[in-house]
User: What shape does this take?
Amino acid sequence: MNERSPLFVISVAAELAGMHPQTLRQYDRLGLVSPTRTAGKSRRYSMHDVVQLREIAQLSSEGVSLEGIRRVLGLEDEVATLRARVRELEGALADEMLNRPGRRVFAAGAAGEVISLKAGTRVRRENAVVVWRPLERE
Assistant: This one.
């Protein structure tokens, strides 16, 4: 079960949301909160539906019209959908970056330049020490 599992009959959902059952029927007719239906056509509300009903009550008490509430809920659904899509794309990109053949690794060279390497190769280190000696004069 998850937060969208239909659990509550209308009377219980109304009590949990602090509303009258008739208000829930009206919101269903208006499409603000549309619970699932059983084979016998009775409404079954999920915990997500109850949370939305509470949000509707809060927005209504702040003076937002039912049309405004519909728009707010629609935008919240759109944001949730877009966030899920972004997570999906970020995961696909991460997989692509890890599994791409011939991907490149960058390192810093001795003089501070950027060196591009194939994955799995190492920078050749030179530990030579140059000692300066003045030229001997004859």
Observations:
- The longest strand covers residues 104-108.
- The two ends are 94 Å apart (CA to CA).
